[in-house]
Write the structure tokens for this entry.
Amino acid sequence: MPPAVALPATSFLAIDDLLGGQGVLASIPRSALDWVAVIRRGIPAAAVDALTRLTRLSQAELASAVGIPERTLARRKREGKLNSEESSRLIRLARVVARGEEVFEDLDATMDWLKSSNASLGGTTPLSLLDTDIGAEGVMDTLGRIEHGVFA
């Protein structure tokens, strides 16, 4: 069996913290493969509330960022669980927020950056690109360039 792929540990908010921690997720994934299992099972809908609370995103902003209609999110909250695709999208947002916090060393600065238009992203806001994998990759790449002092 190949070794598990470890996600980088940080002293900042981790992905699981952003999603409500052990109280919401039941167990804390320790590797990328653990996250795959969590996604396949579906994340508890309470993770949406945890993420909106910590990031101070409105329900509408979060729904738009993950490409899930607000009515669907409301229904999932009633049902108690997101499906695997929705879970994957929510984790994608949490990963970007966690990475932004590593780069900017401040959650408020990260959220301000995510909501501000960015020339290197075609003048769009990073948050508006997170509804697709390719958009999220572009945002993560831009964060990497900022971290390394390359014009972004």
